[in-house]
Amino acid sequence: MNGSERIELIGTDFEIKVWSELKKIPYGEVRTYKEIAELIGSPKSYRAVANACGKNPRPPLIPCHRVLRSDGSLGGYSGAGGVAQKKKLLIQEGVFTSD
Fold this sequence. Notes:
Number of helices: 4
Number of strands: 2
Structural class: mainly alpha
Largest sheet: 2 strands, parallel
Shape: globular
């Protein structure tokens, strides 16, 4: 798949809003669930944002691994390998260092 191809997303309007916002997070950067909620115009819906991340149909193409809890902890990851894989992806992107 090249960068010009579109990913067809099937979900609720809210989920699609969240996933579209996730695709804007640059490589090597992270956001919090709360920041995503604010960016989509639903500042109190950070838990719903976390749920939408959990329903992400295309990790890591839709980079939900770049979304953390407000306290900086990892939260969950819907992709293969779960949270351990999320951490590996963030280490690869230079967000975390391996211990």
